[in-house]
Amino acid sequence: MPNTSLLELVRSHSEEFIALRRDIHHHPELSFKEKRTSDLVAEKLGNWGYQVERGLGGTGLVGQLKRGEGGKSLGIRADMDALPIQENTGLKYSSCHSGVMHACGHDGHTAMLLGAARVIADRAQFSGTLNLIFQPAEEFGRIDSGATRMMNDGLFEKYPCDAIFAMHNMPGIPQGRLVFRKGPMMAASDKVIITLDGKGGHGAAPHKAVDPVVAAASLVMALQTVVSRNVDPIEAAVVTVGVLQAGSANNVIPQSARLELTVRTFLPDVRELVERRITEISHAQAQSFGVTAQVDYQRGYAALVNAPAETDFAREVAVELVGTERVVPEGIPLAGSEDFAFMLEKRPGCYLLIGNGDGSGPNGCMVHNPGFDFNDENVPIGAAYWTLLAERFLAA
Ligand code: ZN
After folding, report:
1. Do 192 and 263 touch, CB atoms closer than 8 A?
2. Mean pLDDT of 357-369
3. Cα(227)–Cα(270) distance, integer angstroms
4. Helix/strand/coil percent split, the chain, to 5
5. Which domain CATH number covers 41?
6. Ligand 1 centroid vs 45 CA: distance in angstroms?
């Protein structure tokens, strides 16, 4: 039986939180520049009785609420940043900043958690410590993103959390559907830059040059064997050569060639293997063509791994709130990446998806697309979900 009374209660606040979501959407801010958003969140949390600490990871902040004698502590995280994309939704609340857009729905994630903050503070049906984590720069794409910088500023030392949770919207899944997965759910994301150095020369005299273009072409093909021949066929990995650059004139053999790759893996062993094979193949291929290879392997976001017990718990809360027919108990893993993975390396927890809707409108449009919009119907569902999760985790 869905917990309709809580949903109804939260829906009675819907107008306020949907307006807030649209306000944040209208004023998007890039990674580590979430000044206005951070001000807004701090003001709201302060008004509702949260103890607020700002300046964790730059624009990040934590709102803490303690009730009763309970010793348990819970962390719920929302991301706040937008993307360098020119919005073309044509919505009346679309971005007021040229070239900046909430194209990943972090406006909605922030509004859902703020909605929960308000309802939880009103109801006060818990005992323990609630830490609401508003994180900057999820989209930063490098290891020192918002999650890392908040942790470097002492997030979990100052605000110990027995478990942590976060939610992301997902277009293409029916609106409001809650999707869970135990273990690896999103991929580790690494970047590799390979530079091949040969000897430039005249295009008519290849025998007097060492051609890095032919070596690069061969290397692109050889790299395809890492996934097809080295990785266990039961495991998943992606090796994509997204950049291949060399030369600038048809009759000149260039001095060097450059490849840039993205690598996605779900397991530490597979990540090690892929890194090793890319490095070995690059050097061996280079040697066979008489060029030299420089391999710069840059590890990015870790794989996002949900803890078993916390995933069971988060799933039970979802079933209680919306009923089994709106819960996907074991979704498929995604090759995208997410810096909440770094927090999950330090604390057990669960990251879940909420369906943003399907179809051809802005809600079904994929994230990171100029036509995307967060589904406002999810604001009360997300807020009710976090409210119930907090009340169950910190049961009085
Ligand atoms: Zn996102």
Report:
1. yes
2. 92
3. 10
4. 40, 25, 35
5. 3.40.630.10
6. 23
pLDDT number for residue 187: 96
Distance 132 CA to ligand 1 centre (A): 18
Å from CA of 16 to ligand 1 middle: 23
In angstroms, the CA 103 to CA 105 distance is: 6
Cα 139 to middle of ligand 1, angstroms: 7
For residues 281 and 316, state if they share a domain: no
Does 66 lie in the same domain as 155? yes
The predicted-structure confidence for 316-339, as pLDDT tens digits, reads as follows: 999 999 999 999 999 999 988 999
CA of 127 to the centre of ligand 1 (A): 31
Question: How far away, in angstroms, is 313 Cα from ligand 1 center?
Answer: 23
C-alpha separations of 236 from 32, 161, 228 in Å? 32, 32, 10
2 falls in which pLDDT band (50, 70, 90)? low
pLDDT for 320:
97
Please give the distance, rounded to the nearest whole angstrom, from the Cα atom of residue 137 to the centre of ligand 1: 10
Ligand 1 centroid distance, CA of 54 (Å): 22
pTM over 0.85: yes
pLDDT per position as a tens digit, 286-298: 999 999 999 999 9
| Interval between CA 36 and ligand 1 midpoint (Å) | 19
Distance 69 CA to ligand 1 centre (A): 36
Q: How far is the CA of 104 from the centre of ligand 1 (A)?
A: 4
* Chain segment 181-195, per-residue pLDDT in tens: 999 999 999 999 999
Q: What are 1's two structure tokens?
A: 């039986």
Using the 3D structure, point to which of 299, 324, 357 is the last residue of a domain. 299
170 Cα: distance to centroid of ligand 1 (angstroms): 9
Q: What burial class does residue 150 get, using C-beta atoms within 10 Å of its C-beta: 0-12 exposed, 13-18 middle, 19+ buried?
A: buried
Q: How far is the CA of 106 from the centre of ligand 1 (A)?
A: 6
Instruction: Provide the mean pLDDT of the chain.
Output: 96
Q: Which residue has the tokens 């720069």?
A: 137
Q: Do 272 and 356 lie in a common domain?
A: no
What is the domain range of residue 194? 188-299
Domain check: are 277 and 357 in the same one? Answer: no
- Residue 225 predicted with pLDDT over 80: yes
